[in-house]
Structure formats: structure tokens, C-alpha cells
Amino acid sequence: MKAVLDHVGIAVENLAAALAFYRDALGLEIEAPEEVASQRVRAHFVPVGESKLELLEATAPDSPIAKYVGKRGPGLHHITLRVDDIHAAVAQLKARGAKLIDEQPRAGAEGALIAFIHPAATHGVLVELKQSPAASHQSPTVSRVQRFSLGDLELVSLCDGFLQVDGGAMFGSVPKPLWEQEAPPDARNRIRVAMRPLIVRGARTMIIDAGVGDKEDAAFVEAYGLDRAKALDQSLAEAGIAPEAIDLVLASHLQFDHAGGFTIRDAGGRLRPRFPRAQYIARRGEWDDAGHPHARSRAAYRADNFVPLAEAGVLQLVDDDVSIMPGVRVRRTGGYTMHHQIVLIESAGKTAAFAADLVPTAAHLPEAWIAGVDLYPMETLAAKTQFLKEAVERNTLVFFEHDPAIAAGYIREQDGKRSVVSAPG
Ligand SMILES: [Zn+2]
Q1: What is the pLDDT of residues 197-248, one digit of tens each?
Q2: In this structure, are residues 98 and 91 in contact, taking their beta carbons and an 8 Å threshold?
Q3: Residues 6 or more apart whose Cβ sits within 8 Å of residue 253
Q4: Which of 30, 101, 303, 405 is the most interior residue, by most CB within 10 Å?
């Protein structure tokens, strides 16, 4: 195994005193701190050549770092080695009988996979293995903006950032030992999901869904581990598409991780449509349900995301599986919500589909892998079975709105087992 020293973690008792040494006396630069709420720790990285020092400061008395310092005093806490293939590294260690803290790699900060090795195996030093997201075997070509051409249409997959969502909520009745192999959870059992709106450029320029947007408060950011370091604004800029160029905004449904980006708060604090020239299109049934949520759907529907559209007179409600623009039509699937819809795209004999929450990630290909938060899972099962069959038969380019690594791919079926061939775009 090839390993590179990523960083050395130092548990600090008094941050000011530590900075007086590392920053002032040594003259090193300290990066902006990163808070890891689940560990009640604040990390201050100090670049030193190819590697970094990490000053670890406890933010609460019950923090593991506070306990460590209380027991052994400040000092060396762990070293982190970066590997290309963490699954192979962990398997190799297991085969040699090395004692591990994490038997399976799990999600760390910023999309990395990590696994800790027990100090009993490492001769007294806590060692963390880390695989950076760029090296992740399932995402060699991850980009936040990916372009595809489909006949006369251009499709551009964008990204509004990532959320950490409860793994059980994402996989419903699937046992954790199965889903955690597909989606490694963090210390709070949350898995990383992306928010990937899709641009369709043809007779008109349309965006399907718009991510979570920027109206959420600190409590939300903490609860969902919201990562919008690069969000829809940057994605649009990278794709060369101005918000003013969007003619149509189409909603798969109106829950916050899809409709949050439909509105923004202006300098005066007023809510207004985020795409100033666009007509917004939603399904009437979904609109009615979003405006009259019940105990189980209330948390996901925020009036601020959609009511301002009606007030601004830019909302158009559709009742059926209609054509939205040439080559683009919607299909109600129900399941996730009663009026959840997917988008079917066709041009010059080629087909693509925006699967929204019907097949949120590539890990959801098995029919029974249905999210626990689906309101009508048996409807999801029926719609998904039909959809996947068609997607295989028609060689449909399927867009996975929530997949952390695969924006789009083709679904293959062999010996009754399905897989995704990710499309490079
Ligand atoms: Zn969703």
C-alpha cells in the first residue's frame, strides 16, 4: 500500500497559547478553523509543505479531545495517512490481523472516506487512514458541472452542494449492514447526498429543481451538515448560464432540498423569485399538498420556498403528464409524495430522464431500496419498477439528483442484476 502523510493532529489545551507558538513564534500560517460539531472539536489546520498540522481544540467538556487532554495532557493525538484505495488498505490490515477501530471505511469531512486503526496495532499512535474524494473509486470523474448532448438538446448537470441525511431515512427497510457498504455513514449515521439540478437547453432554457438555496439558518446547516462551499451560483457561472437566461423552472416536487433555490431574500429582506425572468411550473396536486402539510410532511415544506412565486405571479400549475417544452414532458410517479413527478427528455430518438426522488442515487437501483421518508412506498415500488424497465430497454441517460458521485449514467441489466455505467458527460 502506498501512503502519504496527510496531517498530524495535536490536541491543544489552550488555543491562544498554542497559536502564540505555532503562528507567532514559528511564523506559520493558520487556516480558518473548521468546526466538527459531532466531535465537539474545532480544527485549525497549519500547512507545512505537503502536509499539515492540525491543532484540535475541544468546544465542550465532553469532547473526546477534552477527555484526551484531561487524561494525558496536550500533545500528539493522531497521524493521518492518505491512501488511494481505503477499502483495499482496510482489507489488507484485516487480513494481517491488525486491530481496527473502524472495520469499514466511513464518511469523514469534505467527502473523504476515513478509518481509524487502533493504537494497539500501531505501537501507541492513533492512525487515521483517509481517501480523498478525488481518489474515490466510484467517482473518478466527479465534477459539479457536467454537459451532455441529447439529439438537439443540451443537458447540463449542476450542483447546489451536499447534505448529510440520516442513512436509515434514505434506505427505509434496507438493513444497515447492506446500505452502509454503498453509502458509508458518518458518526451521526448520516450519509452524504448531493443536490443536482439539471439544465435543459433547447427551444427554451429550463432548470429542473434548484437545490436547497441559501435561506437556511445555522441550526439547519448544523443538523444537515450542509456543504454549499460551492453551490448553484458557482455551478451556473461555471456553465456560463446567467440566472436571467432561465426561461422555465420546473419542480419535481416542492420539498426544501429541491425548491429551496426557487426563491431568494433580497437586500431588503423580501423574498422574491431567484430566476427573474422565469416562469415556474409545479404540479397542482403537489402545490396543494405543500400548502396544506400534515404532521409527516410539514418539516419538508417551507412556504418561503414557493408561496412568493404565486405572489409574484410567475407560477404555472399543471394537472397532467403534459409537455413542458419540445422534447420535455413530466410524468407523475407519486410515491415519494402523492404528486411527485419525474421528467422525461427525448430528442432525435435518444432519451434521458431526471429521476428526482424516484431513484435518488445509483445505490437505489434495487426495487425494494426505497427511502424511509417516501410517503407512499408501494406507489414508489410500482413506478420505479416500470421506470427502470423502460430505462434499460431505451438506453436512457438517467440523472440521479442526490447521488454524491454520479450525476448521470446508463442502467444495465445482466442476470437479473442492475448496475449503473456512469456517463462521463
Ligand atoms: Zn430529495
Answers
A1: 999 999 999 999 999 999 998 899 889 999 998 899 999 999 999 999 999 9
A2: no
A3: 259, 283, 286, 290, 336, 337, 339, 340, 341, 356, 357
A4: 405
CA of 163 to the centre of ligand 1 (A): 10
Nearest alpha carbon to residue 12 among 66, 99, 74, 80: 74
Distance from Cα 275 to the centre of ligand 1, integer Å: 21
| Distance from residue 322's CA to the centre of ligand 1 (Å) | 22
> Ligand 1: distance of its center to the CA of 357 in Å?
5
Find the 396 Cα to ligand 1 centroid distance in Å. 21
114 Cα: distance to centroid of ligand 1 (angstroms): 26
Work out the pLDDT band at 110, boundaries 50, 70, 90: low
**Nearest-angstrom CA–CA distance, 396 and 385:** 15
Give me the helix-helix angle, 303-311 and 284-291, nearest 10°: 120
Q: Give mean pLDDT, residues 188-192.
A: 93
Distance between terminal CA atoms of the chain?
32
Query: What separation in Å is there between the alpha carbon of 38 and the centre of ligand 1?
Result: 23
Distance 182 CA to ligand 1 centre (A): 18
Does 141 score more than 60 pLDDT? no
Q: Give the mean pLDDT of 360-386.
A: 97
Ligand 1 center to residue 356 CA distance, Å?
7
Centroid of ligand 1 to alpha carbon of 228 (angstroms): 16
Residue 333 to residues 269, 341, 375, 396, 402, Cα–Cα distance (Å): 36, 5, 12, 17, 17
- What is the model's pLDDT at position 168? 95
168: CA distance to ligand 1 center in Å? Answer: 14
Give the alpha-carbon dihedral of 222, 228, 232, 236, to 10 degrees: 170
Whole-number Å distance, alpha carbon 198 to ligand 1 midpoint, is: 14
CA distance 161 to 260: 12
Task: Tell how far the Cα of 257 is from the centroid of ligand 1, in angstroms.
Answer: 6
Burial-class residue 161 by CB neighbours within 10 Å (0-12, 13-18, 19+).
buried
Q: How far apart are CA 40 and CA 68, in angstroms?
A: 13
The DSSP code sequence of 10-61 is EEES-HHHHHIIIIIIS----PPPEEEGGGTEEEEEEEETTEEEEEEEESST
The mean of the pLDDT values for the chain is 92
Share of the chain above pLDDT 90, in %: 77
